[in-house]
């Protein structure tokens, strides 16, 4: 073998090694701020630094994420706590691999029942008989709203709930397709700026909870077969979470890019707090609430829901 051939072979091996080092990973989330730690980790090259060629994949409705994970359309997704638990209760072998966001004063204030023009909501019972759009029946915002109605003495069965994706909320509110939507920032500011309606209730603020909103999940089979990928993913998410919590400019840029909202609109409200650590006891409240709403049929083992 000539020196030129040897040099070429070494170069090709080096390139092959680099390509192999970058493990492809698709992460699915809806158009909210809750997966901002992953968005930032993609845009700031954090995943690449950890050897992951990660891509953010938009999912229209949160309740579709578990099926996308199980079909391997995505390897990791950001289901809400409620969607994850309902999927696990239904027999899907999912496991949480890292935390995304948690509820808190600022994030709770971002959540509203937004009411279209022509509809007046003065108190919780005014939602009776109304058509209310939720970004997934059984998803986070829907379950919280039902909990709020129950605490206010309103029968949630007297409210007509339908599924409406986040991107279509402004149009469906403007057209009168629903009376209200359960939504969050930056969609709230977008609809207020368009003069489409008003805030009917800030129900999450009244509940005042601090449990997880969204966390990152994978199929147990994939996660157990790829421990090194999980380790790298967690490390990248921890770095991304710090940027989300400390650097509003970078976080806003990544959120705007993924959600396709204007940067001005995204900056109008702070992103939800990123918390990469996830503990079994943090899911206990959600299980109690979902059980009371007859959303769960089995007794879930908290210690098996989170990958060690």
UniProtKB/TrEMBL annotation:
<feature type="signal peptide">
    <location>
        <begin position="1"/>
        <end position="21"/>
    </location>
</feature>
<keyword id="KW-0732">Signal</keyword>
<dbReference type="InterPro" id="IPR015168">
    <property type="entry name" value="SsuA/THI5"/>
</dbReference>
<feature type="domain" description="SsuA/THI5-like">
    <location>
        <begin position="33"/>
        <end position="249"/>
    </location>
</feature>
<dbReference type="Pfam" id="PF09084">
    <property type="entry name" value="NMT1"/>
</dbReference>
<comment type="similarity">
    <text>Belongs to the bacterial solute-binding protein SsuA/TauA family.</text>
</comment>
<protein>
    <submittedName>
        <fullName>ABC transporter substrate-binding protein</fullName>
    </submittedName>
</protein>
